[in-house]
Structure formats: C-alpha cells, structure tokens
Amino acid sequence: MPIRTNRGRAAVYRRLWGWPLRSPRHLGATIIGVVVLITVISTVIPAVLKPRTGGGGQAGTTSTVVTGGSGGNQIGVLPTVTSTPLPTKASSPTPAPSSAPVNADARLVADMWVDAFSSYQAGKTTKEKWLAGLKPHTSDELFPRLASIEPANVPVVIDQPLKPIKSFTESAEFEAQLEEGKLIVTVVKLPEGWRVHEFDKVG
Q1: Among 100, 111, 116, 140, which has the highest number of CB atoms less than 10 A from its own CB?
Q2: Of 153, 147, 138, nearest in space to 195 by CA
C-alpha cells in the first residue's frame, strides 16, 4: 500500500539514509555504487548529447562520398585522377623545293667556278692564286674544304657547256664532263648571291 502520510515517508527516508551507516560493509558498498553511478553518467550522457554528423556515421569524423563510374557511392575513397596528355602540335613537314627553270645567274656562277676549278697548271699557277679564283664563286662553308685540296690532283674538265640536272627556285645542279667520270656541282642562292655549295666526282 502506498505511503500517504508525512510521518510514514520520513520513516522510510531515515531507513534509506541510515542503511549505509549500519556497518562498514554497507558503507563500502554504498561508496562503490556511487562511484560506478558517476562513471556511467559521465560516459553515457556526453555520448548521448554529442551531435551526430555525416548522416549517422561516427561522431567527429567526416566522410567523403565519391560517385564511381559504376553508379554506386563509395565512402571514404578518394577519386582517382587520370591525367590526359595534352595534344602535341605536330611539326609541319618541310615543303619540297619547287622546280623552276634554270636561273641564268646560277648557270653563270657554275660555269665560272668550274673554269677556275680546272685552271690550275703545275709550275705556272700557285695554290693561293687557284683559291683566289674560286673564292668569289664559293660559299663560306665549302671554301675551307677547297683549301685542303691539292690542286695538282684536280681532275681535268673537258671544255664543253655544263649540263643542268636539277633546277629549283633556291638551288640548281649542273654536270661537267671529265676525262674520267663526271663532276656534279651544286649552286645555292645565298643572301650574297648564287654560290657553289657542293661538288662531287661521279664515276
């Protein structure tokens, strides 16, 4: 039956407060119970009151949601970065030289060069004079090569007109007949004018 009078309630309270003091065992049990109760309260209440983040995930953590190519959501997985190489601009092909009629200046330079090339006479012409006759008609790149040649070994050119082999807007090739074989002379157009840039003995 419920206690309805103040005297009855006071008697019950006295019994409750007095129970720990009845014996050392009661007092020790009471202290242990209070410590356990405080520990439980200090652990459970903060966890309950702490706000949850991340849609129900663990408190205090941030989830990264990445949509994969297959359509599902992957949590905590960083996206894979695929580098796409930049398109490289292909180098423009070098245009082929345009054919053109034989240039009169190119032919003239080739003729004068071949004459000077075959003008050496042993005992009458020095190497310096031979080179001096070639220099005005020779490119700066070819002239050092001529300086290393012994003019006495230069093949004899047969006196006849040069034969054009190839002709372009910036260069031309001519053929001179030798006692043995042929001499191919290449003339190029430089800022200073047409000059012999290459020669080669064939046959």
Answers
A1: 116
A2: 138
Longest dimension (CA), the chain: 158
What span, in angstroms and rounded, lies between the C-alpha atoms of 23 and 142? Answer: 124
Instruction: Give the pair of three-digit tokens for residue 25.
Output: 């065992």
User: Rounded distance, CA 143 to CA 197, Å?
Assistant: 9
DSSP line for 85-133: PPPPPPPPPPPPPPB-PPPHHHHHHHHHHHHHHT---TTT--HHHHHHH
In sequence order, what DSSP letters do the residues of 34-70 get, joined into one string? HHHHHHHHHHHHHHHHSPP-TTTS-TT----EEE-TT
Q: What are phi and psi of 126, to 5 degrees?
A: -85, 165
pTM recorded for the entire structure = 0.53
CA pair distance 50, 38, nearest whole angstrom: 18
Structure tokens at 44: 């459970």
Residue 95 pLDDT greater than 80, yes or no: no
Q: Per the structure block, which two tokens stand in for 148?
A: 């290393």
Q: Across-strand partners of 200?
A: 184
